[in-house]
Amino acid sequence: MNPSDFAYSAYIAGLSGGLLIGIAAALFVLLNGRIAGISGILAGLLQADKGDKTWRVLFLLGMAVAPFVYQIASDLPSVTIEAGTAQLIIAGLLVGLGTSYASGCTSGHGVCGISRGSIRSIAATLTFMMAGIITVYLTRHLIGL
């Protein structure tokens, strides 16, 4: 495989994944009247009524099972995580804190909110993206982690 084949393959995979996420989010809101925001679904699970828990558990279970279903059709891409355990724990806590302050996560704001034209979601997504860009720049180029 030459490098241009790999770039094309990655482009198709990214486009396909984005289309599937968009279609799933659109169907979720059309069929259920709910936003497919993962942090909101998870938070709601922790304080939901009994009848409201089933769809939340199934949604999150579907996300956990999806890679195994994908693996039936194709090999999973290799993943390399360069961060240590402590960094991952701190990052996870910061993401949780950020989603709490932003009243949602990238899926709720970035995928669902922007598509609805929500100014708050556009602002939140721009903030997420800038924080990520600044963090990568600081840690990789200034601090050297």
Walk me through the topology:
Blueprint: H1 3-32, H2 38-47, H3 50-73, H4 85-101, H5 106-115, H6 119-142
Helix pairs in contact: 2-3, 5-6
3D shape: globular
Annotation, overall tally of beta strands? 0
Name the structural class. mainly alpha
Largest sheet: none
Spans of at least 5 consecutive residues whose pLDDT stays below 50 are none
Q: Any idea how many domains?
A: 1
Distance between the termini: 32 Å
Task: Give a quick summary of the entry.
Keywords: Cell inner membrane, Cell membrane, Membrane, Transmembrane, Transmembrane helix, Transport. The protein is an all-alpha fold and 145 residues long.
Descriptive notes:
There is one protein chain. With 145 residues, this protein is mostly helical. The protein has one domain (34-143). The protein contains six helices and no strands. Helix 2 (38-47) packs across helix 3 (50-73) and helix 5 crosses helix 6 (119-142). The protein is globular and about 50 Å long. The two termini are 32 Å apart. Keywords: Cell inner membrane, Cell membrane, Membrane, Transmembrane, Transmembrane helix, Transport.
Protein traits:
145 residues; mainly alpha; 6 helices; globular; Sulphur transport domain-containing protein; Sulf_transp_TsuA/YedE; membrane; transport
